[in-house]
TrEMBL record:
Organism: Clostridium brassicae
Keywords assigned: Arsenical resistance
InterPro entries assigned: Ptyr_pPase (IPR023485), Ptyr_pPase_sf (IPR036196)
Protein name: Arsenate reductase ArsC
Pfam families in the cross-refs: LMWPc
Entry-linked SUPFAM superfamilies: Phosphotyrosine protein phosphatases I
Residue ranges constituting the Phosphotyrosine protein phosphatase I domain according to the UniProt record: 3-128
The UniProt record lists the keyword rRNA-binding: no
CDD domains: LMWP_ArsC
């Protein structure tokens, strides 16, 4: 069975949404992607939507909504996007923090940079899961 990965940050409108989209695109054979936050926004960040559509041809407005931690199933792996405030807590077998800057309010290039970093990290995570470098056994 594929592990479930949750990408989390406070608002679930930008970085975690991009990570969910790119997780589905590049790693759906390895893990199931979810994203959530402790607060929701009425719509996801439209700059993030634009960049993901431009680079990866995915329209996040169609499949993505801002979700709370309680809206997603129990997960095996939690990836924190990098919260300058206290990151939300979600129980899991494995957690890591990607420490990504929030590009909200910044220029187009910043969004592209964050998207490319997330792509690299998603692929790396998939490789580590495939190679059993992440221990998901019940402790």
């Amino acid at each position: 069975m594929k592990p479930k990965v949750a990408f989390i940050c406070v608002h679930n409108s930008c970085r975690s949404q991009m990570a969910e989209a790119l997780g589905r695109l590049f790693a759906s054979d390895v893990f199931d992607s979810y994203s959530a936050g402790t607060e929701t926004k009425p719509q996801i960040n439209q700059d993030a939507v634009r960049v993901i559509k431009e680079i990866y041809k995915i329209n996040m407005n169609e499949a993505h909504t801002s979700k709370l931690l309680t809206d997603i199933p129990e997960v095996d792996i939690v990836i924190k996007m990098g919260c300058n405030v206290v990151c939300p807590f979600l129980p899991s077998k494995y957690t890591e923090d990607w420490g990504l800057e929030d590009p909200t309010g910044k220029n187009h290039e910043e969004f592209i940079k964050v998207a490319k970093t997330i792509e690299k990290k998603v692929k790396d995570l998939a490789d580590r899961i495939k190679n059993n470098q992440i221990d998901l056994s019940e402790s």
